[in-house]
Design a protein that fits this description.
418 residues; 15 helices; alpha/beta; Nucleotidyltransferase, domain 5; binds magnesium ion; binds acetylphosphate; 8-stranded mixed beta sheet; single chain; 20% strand; binds adenosine-5'-diphosphate; 14 strands; 6-stranded mixed beta sheet; 2 domains
Amino acid sequence: MDMILSINAGSSSVKISVYKTDQSTSTPTQLAEATVEGLTAPPAKLKYSRGDQKIKGQELSDISSQEDAFKYILSHLQSDSGLPELSKTEDIHFTCHRVVHGGDYPRSQIIDKETYHHIEELSDLAPLHNGPALSIVRAVSEILPHAKNIAYFDSSFHATLPKHICTYPIDQSVAVRAKLRKYGFHGISYQFITDAVASYLNKPKDSLNIIALHLGSGASACCIKGGRSHDTTMGLTPLAGLPGATRSGSIDPSLMFHFTHNASSPSHSASGHLHITQAEEILNKNSGWKSLTGTTDFGAISSSDKEECKLAFDIFVDRILNYLGPYFTKLGGEVDALVFAGGIGEKGARLRQEVVKGVECLGFKLDMGKNESPADEVVTDISAGDAKLKTLICQTDEQLQMAKGVLDDRGRFVGKKG
Ligand SMILES: Nc1ncnc2c1ncn2[C@@H]1O[C@H](COP(=O)(O)OP(=O)(O)O)[C@@H](O)[C@H]1O
Ligand SMILES: CC(=O)OP(=O)(O)O
Ligand SMILES: [Mg+2]
Protein backbone atom coordinates (compact mmCIF):
# COMPACT_ATOMS: atom_id res chain seq x y z
CA MET A 1 0.00 0.00 0.00
CA ASP A 2 1.26 3.48 -0.88
CA MET A 3 0.39 6.66 0.98
CA ILE A 4 0.14 9.91 -0.96
CA LEU A 5 0.16 13.43 0.47
CA SER A 6 -1.27 15.80 -2.11
CA ILE A 7 -0.42 19.45 -1.44
CA ASN A 8 -2.16 22.39 -3.09
CA ALA A 9 -0.51 25.70 -2.22
CA GLY A 10 -2.87 28.44 -3.44
CA SER A 11 -2.34 32.16 -2.98
CA SER A 12 -4.60 32.31 0.09
CA SER A 13 -4.69 28.72 1.29
CA VAL A 14 -2.94 25.38 1.58
CA LYS A 15 -5.08 22.29 1.03
CA ILE A 16 -3.67 18.85 1.76
CA SER A 17 -5.39 15.52 1.16
CA VAL A 18 -4.11 12.14 2.31
CA TYR A 19 -4.77 9.10 0.14
CA LYS A 20 -3.98 5.42 0.25
CA THR A 21 -3.64 3.33 -2.86
CA ASP A 22 -2.79 -0.22 -3.71
CA GLN A 23 -1.79 -1.92 -6.94
CA SER A 24 -5.32 -3.18 -7.63
CA THR A 25 -7.08 0.21 -7.52
CA SER A 26 -7.08 2.91 -10.14
CA THR A 27 -8.55 5.58 -7.82
CA PRO A 28 -6.84 6.74 -4.65
CA THR A 29 -8.92 6.43 -1.45
CA GLN A 30 -9.07 9.65 0.54
CA LEU A 31 -8.38 9.24 4.27
CA ALA A 32 -8.40 12.88 5.34
CA GLU A 33 -8.42 16.44 4.02
CA ALA A 34 -7.09 19.53 5.78
CA THR A 35 -7.18 23.16 4.67
CA VAL A 36 -5.64 26.24 6.17
CA GLU A 37 -7.41 29.15 4.51
CA GLY A 38 -7.48 32.91 4.89
CA LEU A 39 -3.71 33.46 4.61
CA THR A 40 -4.50 36.84 3.02
CA ALA A 41 -7.29 37.62 5.55
CA PRO A 42 -5.81 36.72 8.98
CA PRO A 43 -6.37 34.96 11.28
CA ALA A 44 -5.93 31.83 9.18
CA LYS A 45 -8.52 29.13 9.80
CA LEU A 46 -8.37 25.32 9.84
CA LYS A 47 -10.85 23.05 8.13
CA TYR A 48 -10.39 19.32 8.69
CA SER A 49 -12.31 16.21 7.81
CA ARG A 50 -11.60 12.55 8.41
CA GLY A 51 -14.60 10.24 8.19
CA ASP A 52 -17.23 11.68 10.51
CA GLN A 53 -14.74 13.87 12.33
CA LYS A 54 -15.01 17.47 11.17
CA ILE A 55 -13.43 20.76 12.27
CA LYS A 56 -14.55 23.99 10.60
CA GLY A 57 -13.30 27.52 11.02
CA GLN A 58 -10.88 26.94 13.93
CA GLU A 59 -8.82 30.13 14.21
CA LEU A 60 -5.05 29.71 14.16
CA SER A 61 -2.48 32.13 15.47
CA ASP A 62 1.01 32.64 14.00
CA ILE A 63 0.21 31.06 10.63
CA SER A 64 0.93 33.59 7.93
CA SER A 65 2.68 31.73 5.11
CA GLN A 66 2.08 28.62 3.04
CA GLU A 67 5.11 27.01 4.72
CA ASP A 68 3.66 27.64 8.22
CA ALA A 69 0.35 26.22 7.02
CA PHE A 70 2.01 23.09 5.63
CA LYS A 71 3.92 22.42 8.86
CA TYR A 72 0.80 22.99 10.93
CA ILE A 73 -1.29 20.61 8.81
CA LEU A 74 1.38 17.89 8.80
CA SER A 75 1.68 17.89 12.57
CA HIS A 76 -2.13 17.95 12.87
CA LEU A 77 -2.38 14.89 10.60
CA GLN A 78 0.40 13.02 12.36
CA SER A 79 -1.05 13.61 15.79
CA ASP A 80 -4.55 12.45 14.80
CA SER A 81 -4.94 9.08 16.52
CA GLY A 82 -7.64 8.19 13.99
CA LEU A 83 -5.02 8.30 11.23
CA PRO A 84 -2.49 5.67 12.31
CA GLU A 85 -1.38 5.30 8.67
CA LEU A 86 0.58 8.55 9.01
CA SER A 87 2.14 8.10 12.41
CA LYS A 88 5.51 7.15 10.92
CA THR A 89 7.03 9.64 8.49
CA GLU A 90 8.49 6.87 6.30
CA ASP A 91 4.93 5.72 5.57
CA ILE A 92 4.41 8.65 3.20
CA HIS A 93 5.69 7.48 -0.18
CA PHE A 94 4.67 10.27 -2.54
CA THR A 95 4.14 13.98 -2.03
CA CYS A 96 2.44 15.80 -4.92
CA HIS A 97 3.00 19.53 -5.16
CA ARG A 98 0.80 21.92 -7.13
CA VAL A 99 3.27 24.24 -8.86
CA VAL A 100 1.55 27.08 -10.66
CA HIS A 101 4.19 28.05 -13.25
CA GLY A 102 5.87 25.15 -15.01
CA GLY A 103 7.13 27.05 -18.08
CA ASP A 104 7.32 24.57 -20.95
CA TYR A 105 6.84 21.39 -18.88
CA PRO A 106 3.96 19.59 -20.59
CA ARG A 107 3.47 17.13 -17.70
CA SER A 108 4.40 16.27 -14.12
CA GLN A 109 8.05 15.96 -13.09
CA ILE A 110 9.97 14.37 -10.25
CA ILE A 111 11.48 17.24 -8.28
CA ASP A 112 15.24 16.71 -8.46
CA LYS A 113 17.90 19.43 -8.27
CA GLU A 114 17.38 20.44 -11.90
CA THR A 115 13.59 20.73 -11.80
CA TYR A 116 13.79 22.52 -8.43
CA HIS A 117 16.08 25.17 -9.91
CA HIS A 118 13.96 25.50 -13.01
CA ILE A 119 10.83 26.08 -10.91
CA GLU A 120 12.82 28.59 -8.85
CA GLU A 121 13.83 30.45 -12.02
CA LEU A 122 10.16 30.75 -12.92
CA SER A 123 9.29 32.29 -9.52
CA ASP A 124 9.26 35.84 -10.86
CA LEU A 125 6.49 34.79 -13.25
CA ALA A 126 4.24 33.51 -10.45
CA PRO A 127 5.27 35.62 -7.48
CA LEU A 128 2.40 34.52 -5.22
CA HIS A 129 2.86 30.83 -5.96
CA ASN A 130 6.13 29.19 -7.06
CA GLY A 131 8.24 30.44 -4.13
CA PRO A 132 5.70 29.30 -1.50
CA ALA A 133 5.35 25.89 -3.25
CA LEU A 134 9.14 25.48 -3.15
CA SER A 135 9.23 26.40 0.54
CA ILE A 136 6.93 23.39 1.08
CA VAL A 137 9.14 21.16 -1.11
CA ARG A 138 12.12 22.12 1.10
CA ALA A 139 10.12 21.42 4.27
CA VAL A 140 9.10 17.99 2.90
CA SER A 141 12.72 17.11 2.11
CA GLU A 142 13.64 17.88 5.73
CA ILE A 143 10.66 16.35 7.53
CA LEU A 144 9.77 13.50 5.15
CA PRO A 145 13.10 12.46 3.59
CA HIS A 146 11.66 9.14 2.32
CA ALA A 147 8.95 10.76 0.21
CA LYS A 148 9.27 11.17 -3.53
CA ASN A 149 8.38 14.76 -4.50
CA ILE A 150 6.43 15.21 -7.72
CA ALA A 151 5.46 18.55 -9.24
CA TYR A 152 2.13 18.96 -11.06
CA PHE A 153 1.94 22.17 -13.03
CA ASP A 154 -1.05 24.49 -13.44
CA SER A 155 0.33 25.50 -16.82
CA SER A 156 0.63 22.00 -18.38
CA PHE A 157 -3.07 21.70 -19.33
CA HIS A 158 -2.67 24.77 -21.53
CA ALA A 159 0.19 23.28 -23.60
CA THR A 160 -2.48 22.82 -26.31
CA LEU A 161 -3.19 26.57 -26.77
CA PRO A 162 -3.00 27.33 -30.52
CA LYS A 163 -0.04 29.47 -31.57
CA HIS A 164 -2.14 32.47 -32.60
CA ILE A 165 -3.79 32.44 -29.17
CA CYS A 166 -0.68 32.09 -26.99
CA THR A 167 1.49 34.51 -29.00
CA TYR A 168 1.61 38.17 -27.92
CA PRO A 169 1.88 40.66 -30.78
CA ILE A 170 5.31 42.02 -29.76
CA ASP A 171 8.81 41.80 -31.30
CA GLN A 172 9.11 38.05 -31.87
CA SER A 173 12.88 37.90 -31.48
CA VAL A 174 12.46 39.13 -27.88
CA ALA A 175 9.32 37.06 -27.28
CA VAL A 176 10.95 33.81 -28.40
CA ARG A 177 14.25 34.38 -26.60
CA ALA A 178 12.60 35.32 -23.30
CA LYS A 179 9.71 32.83 -23.73
CA LEU A 180 7.13 35.60 -23.39
CA ARG A 181 3.81 34.01 -24.25
CA LYS A 182 0.47 33.11 -22.75
CA TYR A 183 0.92 30.06 -20.48
CA GLY A 184 -2.37 29.95 -18.56
CA PHE A 185 -2.94 28.49 -15.07
CA HIS A 186 -5.47 26.62 -12.87
CA GLY A 187 -4.83 23.74 -15.30
CA ILE A 188 -4.91 20.96 -12.70
CA SER A 189 -8.39 22.15 -11.83
CA TYR A 190 -9.45 22.46 -15.50
CA GLN A 191 -8.26 18.89 -16.13
CA PHE A 192 -10.36 17.68 -13.18
CA ILE A 193 -13.37 19.66 -14.45
CA THR A 194 -12.97 18.28 -17.99
CA ASP A 195 -12.85 14.67 -16.76
CA ALA A 196 -15.71 15.13 -14.27
CA VAL A 197 -18.05 16.95 -16.70
CA ALA A 198 -17.36 14.50 -19.58
CA SER A 199 -18.21 11.63 -17.27
CA TYR A 200 -21.33 13.43 -15.92
CA LEU A 201 -22.60 14.21 -19.42
CA ASN A 202 -21.59 10.76 -20.64
CA LYS A 203 -19.60 12.25 -23.52
CA PRO A 204 -16.21 11.22 -24.85
CA LYS A 205 -13.68 13.74 -23.58
CA ASP A 206 -12.43 14.61 -27.06
CA SER A 207 -15.84 15.92 -28.06
CA LEU A 208 -16.47 17.98 -24.92
CA ASN A 209 -16.84 21.74 -25.39
CA ILE A 210 -17.23 23.76 -22.21
CA ILE A 211 -16.62 27.22 -20.82
CA ALA A 212 -15.15 26.70 -17.36
CA LEU A 213 -14.73 29.33 -14.65
CA HIS A 214 -12.31 28.66 -11.80
CA LEU A 215 -13.13 31.45 -9.36
CA GLY A 216 -11.10 31.48 -6.13
CA SER A 217 -8.53 33.85 -4.69
CA GLY A 218 -7.12 33.80 -8.19
CA ALA A 219 -9.80 33.63 -10.88
CA SER A 220 -9.70 32.55 -14.50
CA ALA A 221 -11.88 31.33 -17.36
CA CYS A 222 -11.01 28.60 -19.85
CA CYS A 223 -12.44 27.79 -23.25
CA ILE A 224 -12.19 24.00 -23.53
CA LYS A 225 -12.66 22.66 -27.06
CA GLY A 226 -12.65 18.91 -27.68
CA GLY A 227 -11.48 18.38 -24.09
CA ARG A 228 -8.39 20.57 -24.55
CA SER A 229 -7.51 24.10 -23.55
CA HIS A 230 -8.22 26.37 -26.52
CA ASP A 231 -8.00 29.73 -24.73
CA THR A 232 -7.72 30.99 -21.18
CA THR A 233 -7.65 34.35 -19.45
CA MET A 234 -4.40 34.19 -17.48
CA GLY A 235 -1.25 34.85 -19.46
CA LEU A 236 2.52 34.97 -19.02
CA THR A 237 1.71 35.21 -15.30
CA PRO A 238 -1.45 34.62 -13.23
CA LEU A 239 -2.02 38.39 -13.14
CA ALA A 240 -3.74 38.67 -16.52
CA GLY A 241 -7.47 38.33 -17.10
CA LEU A 242 -9.94 38.40 -14.21
CA PRO A 243 -9.35 40.35 -10.98
CA GLY A 244 -8.79 38.35 -7.79
CA ALA A 245 -8.39 38.68 -4.03
CA THR A 246 -5.26 40.84 -4.26
CA ARG A 247 -4.74 41.00 -8.06
CA SER A 248 -5.94 43.65 -10.48
CA GLY A 249 -6.46 41.34 -13.46
CA SER A 250 -5.95 42.90 -16.91
CA ILE A 251 -5.50 46.66 -16.98
CA ASP A 252 -4.08 49.04 -19.54
CA PRO A 253 -0.32 48.23 -19.32
CA SER A 254 0.47 51.97 -19.38
CA LEU A 255 -1.50 52.59 -16.18
CA MET A 256 1.36 51.65 -13.86
CA PHE A 257 3.66 54.41 -15.16
CA HIS A 258 1.00 56.95 -14.14
CA PHE A 259 0.26 55.23 -10.81
CA THR A 260 3.82 55.47 -9.42
CA HIS A 261 7.19 56.81 -10.51
CA ASN A 262 8.86 53.76 -8.94
CA ALA A 263 7.12 51.17 -11.10
CA SER A 264 10.32 49.51 -12.26
CA SER A 265 12.35 49.64 -9.03
CA PRO A 266 12.69 46.43 -7.02
CA SER A 267 9.82 45.70 -4.64
CA HIS A 268 10.37 45.33 -0.90
CA SER A 269 9.58 41.63 -1.18
CA ALA A 270 12.28 41.05 -3.81
CA SER A 271 14.75 38.61 -2.26
CA GLY A 272 17.48 36.13 -3.21
CA HIS A 273 15.41 34.34 -5.82
CA LEU A 274 12.46 36.66 -6.31
CA HIS A 275 13.13 39.68 -8.49
CA ILE A 276 9.86 41.53 -8.77
CA THR A 277 9.28 45.21 -9.30
CA GLN A 278 7.08 47.60 -7.35
CA ALA A 279 4.62 47.48 -10.23
CA GLU A 280 4.34 43.71 -9.94
CA GLU A 281 4.01 43.95 -6.17
CA ILE A 282 1.21 46.54 -6.40
CA LEU A 283 -0.75 44.67 -9.07
CA ASN A 284 -0.33 41.19 -7.51
CA LYS A 285 -0.54 41.88 -3.80
CA ASN A 286 -2.21 45.24 -3.21
CA SER A 287 -5.00 45.35 -5.78
CA GLY A 288 -8.20 43.40 -6.46
CA TRP A 289 -10.85 42.95 -3.73
CA LYS A 290 -8.36 43.95 -1.03
CA SER A 291 -7.74 47.37 -2.57
CA LEU A 292 -11.40 48.04 -3.33
CA THR A 293 -13.02 46.80 -0.12
CA GLY A 294 -10.32 46.12 2.49
CA THR A 295 -11.16 42.41 2.58
CA THR A 296 -10.18 39.46 0.40
CA ASP A 297 -13.21 37.42 1.49
CA PHE A 298 -15.50 37.39 -1.53
CA GLY A 299 -18.26 35.70 0.53
CA ALA A 300 -18.37 38.79 2.79
CA ILE A 301 -18.21 41.13 -0.23
CA SER A 302 -21.16 39.35 -1.90
CA SER A 303 -23.44 39.81 1.10
CA SER A 304 -22.45 43.36 2.04
CA ASP A 305 -24.52 46.50 1.34
CA LYS A 306 -21.48 48.77 1.35
CA GLU A 307 -20.99 50.76 -1.85
CA GLU A 308 -17.40 49.58 -2.29
CA CYS A 309 -18.46 45.93 -1.96
CA LYS A 310 -21.26 46.38 -4.49
CA LEU A 311 -18.73 47.96 -6.86
CA ALA A 312 -16.27 45.06 -6.42
CA PHE A 313 -19.07 42.55 -7.04
CA ASP A 314 -20.27 44.37 -10.19
CA ILE A 315 -16.69 44.61 -11.51
CA PHE A 316 -16.23 40.86 -11.12
CA VAL A 317 -19.49 40.09 -12.95
CA ASP A 318 -18.56 42.52 -15.73
CA ARG A 319 -15.03 41.13 -16.21
CA ILE A 320 -16.30 37.53 -16.29
CA LEU A 321 -18.92 38.50 -18.91
CA ASN A 322 -16.14 40.05 -20.98
CA TYR A 323 -14.93 36.52 -21.77
CA LEU A 324 -18.14 34.47 -22.00
CA GLY A 325 -19.37 35.90 -25.29
CA PRO A 326 -16.00 35.49 -27.04
CA TYR A 327 -15.52 31.93 -25.74
CA PHE A 328 -19.05 31.04 -26.84
CA THR A 329 -18.23 32.19 -30.36
CA LYS A 330 -14.83 30.47 -30.33
CA LEU A 331 -16.79 27.25 -29.73
CA GLY A 332 -19.14 28.12 -32.60
CA GLY A 333 -22.04 28.15 -30.13
CA GLU A 334 -21.60 24.37 -29.66
CA VAL A 335 -21.29 24.57 -25.87
CA ASP A 336 -22.04 21.54 -23.70
CA ALA A 337 -22.02 23.56 -20.49
CA LEU A 338 -20.96 26.66 -18.61
CA VAL A 339 -19.20 25.35 -15.49
CA PHE A 340 -18.61 27.16 -12.19
CA ALA A 341 -15.79 25.94 -9.90
CA GLY A 342 -13.37 27.19 -7.21
CA GLY A 343 -14.37 28.60 -3.80
CA ILE A 344 -16.43 31.48 -5.26
CA GLY A 345 -17.77 29.48 -8.22
CA GLU A 346 -18.96 26.68 -5.95
CA LYS A 347 -20.32 28.75 -3.05
CA GLY A 348 -21.21 32.10 -4.57
CA ALA A 349 -24.91 31.69 -5.49
CA ARG A 350 -25.44 35.42 -6.05
CA LEU A 351 -22.41 35.70 -8.33
CA ARG A 352 -23.60 32.71 -10.41
CA GLN A 353 -27.05 34.29 -10.62
CA GLU A 354 -25.74 37.61 -11.94
CA VAL A 355 -23.25 36.03 -14.37
CA VAL A 356 -25.84 33.70 -15.85
CA LYS A 357 -28.36 36.56 -16.11
CA GLY A 358 -25.77 38.28 -18.33
CA VAL A 359 -25.64 35.33 -20.76
CA GLU A 360 -29.36 34.44 -20.83
CA CYS A 361 -29.44 35.74 -24.41
CA LEU A 362 -27.06 32.87 -25.34
CA GLY A 363 -29.43 30.21 -23.93
CA PHE A 364 -28.21 29.79 -20.34
CA LYS A 365 -30.78 30.06 -17.53
CA LEU A 366 -30.71 29.03 -13.88
CA ASP A 367 -33.16 27.17 -11.70
CA MET A 368 -33.13 29.62 -8.77
CA GLY A 369 -33.83 26.92 -6.16
CA LYS A 370 -31.03 24.65 -7.39
CA ASN A 371 -28.67 27.62 -7.62
CA GLU A 372 -29.39 28.62 -4.00
CA SER A 373 -29.08 25.09 -2.59
CA PRO A 374 -27.16 22.89 -5.02
CA ALA A 375 -26.79 19.19 -4.31
CA ASP A 376 -23.52 18.15 -2.65
CA GLU A 377 -22.22 16.26 -5.70
CA VAL A 378 -19.03 16.48 -7.75
CA VAL A 379 -21.10 17.86 -10.66
CA THR A 380 -24.54 19.44 -10.21
CA ASP A 381 -26.86 20.73 -12.91
CA ILE A 382 -28.38 24.06 -11.82
CA SER A 383 -30.01 24.95 -15.16
CA ALA A 384 -33.69 25.82 -15.50
CA GLY A 385 -35.91 23.19 -17.13
CA ASP A 386 -36.39 25.42 -20.20
CA ALA A 387 -32.72 26.46 -20.55
CA LYS A 388 -31.26 25.75 -24.01
CA LEU A 389 -27.77 25.25 -22.56
CA LYS A 390 -26.58 23.71 -19.33
CA THR A 391 -25.04 25.46 -16.36
CA LEU A 392 -23.15 23.21 -13.95
CA ILE A 393 -21.27 23.49 -10.67
CA CYS A 394 -18.19 21.29 -10.38
CA GLN A 395 -16.58 20.75 -6.97
CA THR A 396 -13.08 20.77 -8.33
CA ASP A 397 -10.39 18.82 -6.48
CA GLU A 398 -6.82 19.61 -7.47
CA GLN A 399 -5.40 17.30 -4.78
CA LEU A 400 -7.35 14.31 -6.13
CA GLN A 401 -6.34 15.16 -9.71
CA MET A 402 -2.66 15.07 -8.67
CA ALA A 403 -3.05 11.84 -6.68
CA LYS A 404 -4.71 10.17 -9.69
CA GLY A 405 -1.74 11.37 -11.71
CA VAL A 406 0.61 9.48 -9.37
CA LEU A 407 -1.26 6.25 -10.12
CA ASP A 408 -1.22 6.89 -13.88
CA ASP A 409 2.44 7.92 -13.93
CA ARG A 410 3.87 5.57 -11.33
CA GLY A 411 5.88 3.72 -14.00
CA ARG A 412 7.64 6.95 -14.99
CA PHE A 413 8.72 7.65 -11.42
CA VAL A 414 9.96 4.22 -10.36
CA GLY A 415 13.69 4.10 -9.64
CA LYS A 416 14.11 7.89 -10.02
CA LYS A 417 15.27 9.94 -7.08
CA GLY A 418 13.34 13.02 -6.14
N1 LIG B 1 -20.40 31.73 0.30
C1 LIG B 1 -19.44 32.25 -0.45
N2 LIG B 1 -19.76 33.08 -1.46
C2 LIG B 1 -18.82 33.61 -2.25
N3 LIG B 1 -17.51 33.37 -2.09
C3 LIG B 1 -17.12 32.56 -1.09
C4 LIG B 1 -18.06 31.95 -0.23
N4 LIG B 1 -17.36 31.18 0.65
C5 LIG B 1 -16.05 31.32 0.36
N5 LIG B 1 -15.90 32.14 -0.70
C6 LIG B 1 -14.65 32.62 -1.31
O1 LIG B 1 -13.87 31.65 -1.97
C7 LIG B 1 -12.53 32.17 -2.08
C8 LIG B 1 -11.52 31.08 -1.86
O2 LIG B 1 -11.61 30.16 -2.91
P1 LIG B 1 -10.58 28.97 -3.06
O3 LIG B 1 -10.80 28.37 -4.41
O4 LIG B 1 -10.72 28.06 -1.89
O5 LIG B 1 -9.23 29.78 -2.95
P2 LIG B 1 -7.74 29.49 -3.35
O6 LIG B 1 -7.51 30.29 -4.56
O7 LIG B 1 -6.91 29.91 -2.19
O8 LIG B 1 -7.62 28.00 -3.64
C9 LIG B 1 -12.42 33.28 -1.04
O9 LIG B 1 -12.45 34.55 -1.69
C10 LIG B 1 -13.69 33.11 -0.23
O10 LIG B 1 -14.13 34.29 0.34
C1 LIG C 1 -3.12 30.35 -10.44
C2 LIG C 1 -3.80 30.95 -9.27
O1 LIG C 1 -4.13 32.10 -9.30
O2 LIG C 1 -4.05 30.12 -8.22
P1 LIG C 1 -4.87 30.48 -6.88
O3 LIG C 1 -6.24 30.84 -7.30
O4 LIG C 1 -4.83 29.19 -6.08
O5 LIG C 1 -4.17 31.61 -6.21
MG1 LIG D 1 -7.07 27.39 -5.56
